[in-house]
């Protein structure tokens, strides 16, 4: 029989995003359902973004800027770098796929913390590369273990800080020591900073500021979280001219749609909305942490806009929250059985979460 599909694809488990909210509401017979399973912005997008999208809607019959030039210019101006050091993608997920397309050959090794964001491994598996997992030390990335797993066959090391789903960060001194230990010919180091805007630890490093010293570093960021553009899928990567050139060679033309580009530009022009989002998340994260401590419920020390909470019976706790109108992520689905991953919401929502967990 003719073989059609690649063997590498057979080993890939499709990402399970869950049912749409509307379908779940209908199935459960609830008046409403609050989604705290996807780490979305509790304030939504800026009104200026919504107005910009409304104005641009009349032009959706036209192709977008194929290279997201205006957005790259605006980002570069804010970051103090060249626009040629930035590539914009259809969410950070596409950028991770571009890395796989541009870098991985069959038999290459790709090192990453385990568990971590699922697309890191998916891209490697599809390319026929070998995933080299490095177990977390509790909730922390074990950089010493990761370093020991780097070999001459290692093409890429993925780092996630704040870590999804563990919520912890890699501090500056530890990151610099790790990068220095890799020597003068390191693999590509992908530093995923999707949740960086919610960090309040002063020891958190700015990946972009390290690019001049470490040219094999590639930093991933997104508009999905702080700007509330998850539905429009806009992420970007910052790296050396060589790295960005290689990613552009495998990037599809017109990969970021008109509405996404316009929305991201409008978000950059409204930093006050991002500041309000950050302030709310930090305040409510502290409120949730205090409430969990009072109830003797353990959790990871979060630096993200979500909490990883340890519970006695995750399935029962998730079901109780669901029946109470709160949808959270079962930790088993992201590598942490016995946990729930819960997005930080507004005060009213967080009070409901704490009450349902206490019950």
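^ structure tokens above, recovered residues below v
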């Amino acid at each position: 029989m003719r073989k059609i599909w690649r063997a590498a694809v057979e080993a890939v488990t499709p990402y399970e995003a869950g049912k749409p909210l509307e379908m779940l509401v209908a199935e459960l017979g609830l008046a409403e359902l609050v989604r705290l399973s996807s780490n979305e912005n509790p304030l939504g997008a800026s009104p200026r973004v919504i107005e910009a999208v409304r104005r641009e809607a009349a032009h959706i019959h036209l192709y977008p800027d194929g290279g997201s030039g205006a957005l790259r210019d605006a980002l570069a101006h804010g970051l103090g770098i060249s626009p040629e050091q930035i590539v914009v993608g259809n969410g950070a997920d596409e950028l991770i796929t571009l890395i796989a397309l541009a870098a991985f050959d069959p038999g290459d090794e790709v090192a990453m913390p385990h568990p971590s964001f699922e697309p890191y491994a998916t891209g490697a598996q599809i390319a026929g590369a070998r995933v080299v997992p490095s177990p977390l030390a509790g909730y922390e990335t074990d950089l010493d273990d990761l370093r020991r797993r780097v070999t001459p066959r290692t093409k890429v090391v993925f780092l996630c800080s704040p870590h999804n789903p563990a919520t912890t960060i890699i501090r500056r001194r530890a990151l610099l020591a790790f990068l220095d230990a890799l020597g003068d010919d390191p693999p590509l180091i992908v530093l995923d900073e999707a949740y960086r805007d919610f960090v309040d630890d002063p020891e958190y490093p700015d990946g972009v500021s390290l690019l001049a010293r470490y040219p094999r570093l590639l930093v991933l960021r997104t508009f999905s979280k702080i700007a509330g553009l998850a539905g429009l899928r806009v992420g970007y990567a910052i790296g050396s001219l060589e790295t960005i050139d290689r990613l552009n060679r495998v990037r599809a033309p017109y990969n970021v749609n008109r509405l996404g580009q316009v929305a991201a530009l409008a978000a950059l022009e409204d930093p006050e909305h991002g500041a309000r989002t950050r302030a709310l998340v930090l305040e409510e994260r502290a409120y949730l942490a205090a409430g969990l401590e009072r109830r003797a419920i353990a959790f990871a020390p979060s630096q993200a806009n979500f909490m990883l909470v340890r519970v006695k019976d995750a399935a029962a706790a998730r079901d109780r929250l669901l029946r109470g109108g709160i949808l959270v992520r079962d930790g088993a689905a992201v590598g942490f059985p016995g946990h729930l991953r819960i997005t930080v919401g507004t005060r009213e929502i967080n009070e409901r979460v704490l009450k349902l967990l206490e019950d």
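The first strand starts at residue 34 and ends at 35.
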